[in-house]
Each structure stands twice: as C-alpha cells, then as structure tokens.
Amino acid sequence: MDEQPPGTRDQSGATDGPLGCYRHPGRETGIRCTRCDRPICTECMVSASVGFQCPDCVRQGSGTGHGPAANQPRTLAGGTIAADPRLVTKILLALNVALFIVVHVKAALLPDLTLFGRANLYYGGPPEGVAEGQWYRLVTSMFLHQEVWHIAFNMLGLWWLGGPLEAALGRARYLTLYLLSGLAGSALTYWLAAPNQPSLGASGAIFGLLGATAVLMRRLNYDMRPVLVLLALNLLFTFTWGGIAWQAHVGGLIAGTVIAIAMVHAPRGRRALVQYGTCALVLAAVILIVVARTAALT
To answer: Where do the TM regions start and end (predicted)?
Structure first.
C-alpha cells in the first residue's frame, strides 16, 4: 500500500469509515497530525503548540520554536515520549502478579498486608490496622488479591486501560494517577467500612484508570459510548455483587477523574502548577480522611 509522505495532505476529503492510525492501522482514531494530516492514535500523537503532530514530523524537526527543548517530543499531558509506552503498566502488572503468587505460597503474609481499620487479627493479641499507625496497609492492600478471578479482572483492566493512558500522559503522570487513585480508594474504604472489615485489591486504582480513560476520550473527541457502557456495567457490578468494597471503587473513580481532568486540560502556560496542585490536593484529602478516621477510632 502506498503511504502518504510527511508534509502532504489528502485533498480528496474522503472519509470512508473510521480513521485508522497510520502507524497502527487497527486502532481507530479521530485525531490527525497538524503537519501532514495523517491520522494518529494516542500512542503516536505528540503535543504541539497547536494540536498534535505525528512522530515522523517531530523527527524531521517540523515543530515550532528553536533549540532542543522546543522540538522535544511531549505527550498530550506534557510528559516525555518513551520508547516503550507500556513499561510502567508492565511493571505494575508484574508486581501484582508476583505478590499474588507470594501470598499464596506464604498465606501468613496476607493478614499483615491487608487493609484493616482496627481489628484483632490474632487471638489475644493487640489491635492492628491503619488506626494503630500501620498506614502502609493503605498501599500494600492495593497490590494484593485473594481470588484468581479478582486478579484476572483487575489485570485485564490494567492492561487494556493502562497502556493508552501511559502513552497519553507519560510515565510519571500515569504512575501518579494510578497510585493516588488507589490511595483514594483505600482512604474511602478506611473511612466508611467497618474497622474490622478486610479489604484488598487493585480495583480502586483500576477504577481511577477507567475514569481517566473517559476524560481522555472526551478530550480527544472519541466516541465515548464504549467506555461509558463499561463504566456503567462496572458500577452495576460493584453495587449488586456481594463482598465488594464499593468504597474503593468510588474513591478511585473520583480521584482518577479529577486528576485526569487536570492532566489533559491544564493550560500550557500553567500546566505544572495545575497538575502538581491537583495531585497535591488529592493527596491532602487522602491524608485528612485517614487522620480524621484514626481520631474517631482511637
């Protein structure tokens, strides 16, 4: 198949069906390079002063401005373009799977890492949990799973949602969104669930990625119906299926959505202030909830 060279435009105006990324033909997209007009997906698009450019145009120095910094490829959110846009997603997935194997080989580790507010885990022993100063449980519980179906669903969601988000946000911003979404889910669970109710799983973080995906698709003018249907089904499952910590899902969804709005809609001139400020506010809210709940329990 002939390929349209960079810097030229298709004058026919034909649009037969959904556009496919010129580097990844199987990926439908509604975004075009502002220089050569070729369709590009979230993994390929590079943020420019106006719109987005494709990697070929960036490499040819088609960007505006002068000096290395002006032509440095950037993601939609201002992050650095990475050679492997799924590296952080792969690491997170491997960490979840590794801990799943570890706690099944040594089951005694599970109670010591699971999220509890305050509970007597061992007969005759002192109370343990976040209220007793074990704040690490807010983090460790995010990477633990007890059932095969639980980790299977979460890791499928991580792989499906995480890759495009990591490519669009950049590694550091994507990892920040993931961790803060998970922490927000843990904090809301700690606040609203019974103190002795155990909770674990990456679901809070995954719901954060789901909310962020909806924000990103809206920003790129993609068809939002698939992600909205997926979100509705997951929320229905959350509130109708027994044994699910709905607080983690809701907390992660809210945090992920708020952070993603700041990531992809921040004005270019105040991008760092808006992005860092929003993440700091979410973290402050998490800390406030944990401190207030701890005071109430102790």
So the answer is: 91-110, 143-162, 174-193, 199-217, 224-242, 248-266, 273-296
pLDDT in tens, 209-251: 999 999 999 998 888 899 999 999 999 999 998 888 999 999 9
Closest CA to 168 of 20, 73, 43: 43
Which tens digit of pLDDT belongs to each residue from 73-84? 678 888 888 788
pLDDT for 62: 45
Residue 163's identity, in one-letter code, is G
Q: How far apart are CA 21 and CA 26, in angstroms?
A: 7
**End-to-end CA distance of the chain, in Å?**
70
Q: Which long-range contacts (CB under 8 A, 24 or more apart) does 232-236 make?
A: 234/207, 234/210
Task: Record the pTM.
Answer: 0.79
Residue 1, amino acid = M
- Residue 185 CA to residue 254 CA, distance in Å, equals 9
Q: Can you tell me whether residue 115 is helix, strand or coil?
A: strand
Domains defined for the chain, CATH in brackets: 1-73 (3.30.40), 87-297 (1.20.1540.10)
Query: Nearest Cα to 44, choosing from 36, 32, 62?
Result: 32
Amino acid letter for position 82: A
CA dihedral 246, 247, 249, 251 (to 10 degrees): 160
Residue 34, both tokens = 């502002």
Tell me the torsion sign for CA atoms 35, 40, 42, 43. Answer: negative
Q: Encoding tokens for residue 68? A: 């290395």
- Asked if residues 16 and 64 have their Cβ atoms less than 8 Å apart, the reply is no
Distance CA 148, CA 113 (A): 18
Helix H or strand E encompassing 46: strand 46-47
Quote the tokens at residue 223.
């068809």
